[in-house]
Write a structure and sequence with these properties.
alpha/beta; 458 residues; 11 helices; binds magnesium ion; binds thymidine-5'-diphosphate; Rossmann fold; Ribosomal Protein S5, domain 2; globular
Length: 458
């Protein structure tokens, strides 16, 4: 495309169209196409080829120097674990999250810790003035930390500054405020965000400086502007949580240097974000008397066992189509569990609303939660409270069989640590972990029988 031609870029998915239209044909969003003057993306402008010299592809063996990477240890264990064991020099990291969730606080704490241990750190804020950042640092008790601070939004100025300063780590807060004078588009548009992120990632690779980009997330969970930034960086972390809850969960959704199923749990307090080393105790600490419909799920988040309470409410519905409301779990999976309970346990949810909630704002993705969900629903439907000292885990098949799940040993160990005495688990997990005794269940009908028996004991 010749320089100066227009193109129309979807602000939601980044697709480029030759003509304007009301709806993006790629992602289906309305009114998201914005005209931009096209120029070749930064760094990709064709260089005149030198006559007679062709690039030669150099092939090497898999086995070679440079196996282990020395990582930067931020001293915030929850953060380091989610990064895969510390930040990798020369890597680019994107931290996304809703505005006000605590991204700036987390990263300021992380760079301040790094700077205190001798890592050369730069924090560039495009959103807040220097005074505001200083005030926050004072509040967090980190004002003494030797972090080099700047308030700047021009990409060229930032890159010049970083090249002169040669830091080991640089935080850019946020990528949506940056702009480069190479493009006519406004800051925050896909073209600007993409071009700026690309240049910063190139800088990271070339200089060996770890670059952390902060990105705000739109309502539907996309990092605003382009998903293309996610593809450019080495790792994408989401910082999530309910504003009304104190807990914040840092989750890796992509990581070229570590696993993606780790979570870091923090608590937002007056002195900033505190690490939560034992999330199970936190998620369970408000449990009162046993009411029907509450079951404790022994789950795994990455390498770490986490116990959470799953609550269900089954109530007569005044509506023609009863309501199914789920918070923190997959609603399709709830429909499946309900269908299996109807087919295998002779229950009917036809005229009843079903609500399911995972306490503490945690989102569970494991199928191992099936058994705990079924137990919570049965407990509510039969009006039979579950014993306070029982945990559950196990996957359910459509035939109603309880399937085995991984890491049952770690789950039981965590339950024992928190004072639980019994566990409902798949048949394969019958090796108890004193003082927890395991009751192996082969099918969901056994679960219903167990819950009915508990009710009669009371
Ligand atoms: P912030 O880090 O500015 O969020 P983001 O960068 O993701 O937009 O967090 C701001 C919120 O955190 C704000 O609502 C106030 C709260 N907060 C505390 O509760 N305690 C603290 O010590 C700090 C610094 C912030
Ligand atoms: Mg911020």
């Amino acid at each position: 495309m010749a320089r100066g031609d227009s193109q129309f870029v979807c602000q939601s998915c980044g697709a480029v169209h030759a003509k304007w239209s009301g709806q993006c044909s790629d992602c289906g969003s309305w009114n998201t196409l914005v005209e931009e003057i096209a120029s070749a993306p930064l760094g990709t402008q064709a260089k005149p080829k030198k006559a007679g010299r062709r690039g030669k592809l150099e092939l090497v063996t898999l086995d070679g120097e440079g196996g282990d990477i020395a990582r930067l240890d931020s001293g915030i264990a929850e953060f380091d674990r989610v990064c895969g064991g510390g930040l990798v020099p020369g890597s680019a990291l994107l931290v996304g999250g809703d505005p006000g969730i605590g991204k700036s606080t987390l990263l300021l704490q992380a760079v301040a810790h790094l700077a205190q241990s001798g890592t050369k750190s730069v924090y560039v804020s495009g959103e807040e003035a220097v005074d505001q950042v200083r005030r926050r640092a004072r509040r967090l008790g980190l004002a003494e930390s030797p972090v080099a601070l700047a308030a700047e939004t021009s990409l060229e100025n930032i890159l010049d500054g970083l090249k002169a300063e040669k830091p080991d780590i640089a935080v850019i807060d946020s990528v949506q405020t940056l702009w480069t004078d190479q493009l006519a588009a406004a800051p925050g548009t896909v073209a600007q965000v993409r071009a700026c992120a690309q240049e910063l990632v190139r800088f990271a690779k070339k200089s060996g400086c770890a670059v952390i980009l902060v990105g705000h997330v739109t309502k539907d969970g996309q990092i605003a502007g382009p998903r293309v930034v996610e593809h450019m960086v080495d790792a994408v972390l989401y910082f999530e949580g309910e504003r009304s809850h104190q807990f914040r969960i840092l989750r890796a959704v992509k990581n070229r240097f570590g696993p993606t199923d780790e979570i870091g749990v923090f608590e937002m307090g007056d002195a900033g974000l505190q690490e939560v080393e034992n999330p199970s105790a936190l998620f369970l600490n408000d449990r009162g008397d046993q009411t029907p419909g509450a079951a404790v799920f022994a789950g795994m988040e990455g390498t770490r066992p986490v116990l959470t309470e799953i609550q269900a409410l089954v109530a007569a519905s005044p509506l023609g189509t009863p309501r199914r409301t789920v918070v923190g779990w997959d609603s399709g999976r709830l429909s499946m569990v309900l269908a299996v309970l109807e087919a295998r346990c002779g229950l009917s949810f036809g005229g009843r609303d079903v609500y399911l909630n995972v306490a503490g704002g945690l989102k569970i993705g494991e199928p191992a939660a099936d058994l705990a969900v079924a137990a919570a629903i049965l407990s509510s439907a039969l009006n039979a409270p579950l014993p306070a000292d029982a945990v559950m885990f196990g996957e359910m098949s459509l035939s109603g069989d309880i399937r085995s799940v991984g890491r049952s040993d770690a789950r039981l160990k965590e339950a024992a640590k928190l004072g639980f005495k019994q566990a409902l688990a798949p048949l394969s997990a019958t090796e108890g972990h004193p003082p927890v005794t395991v009751r192996g269940l082969g099918a969901v009908a056994d679960l219903a029988a167990t819950i009915s028996a508990w009710r009669q004991e009371d």
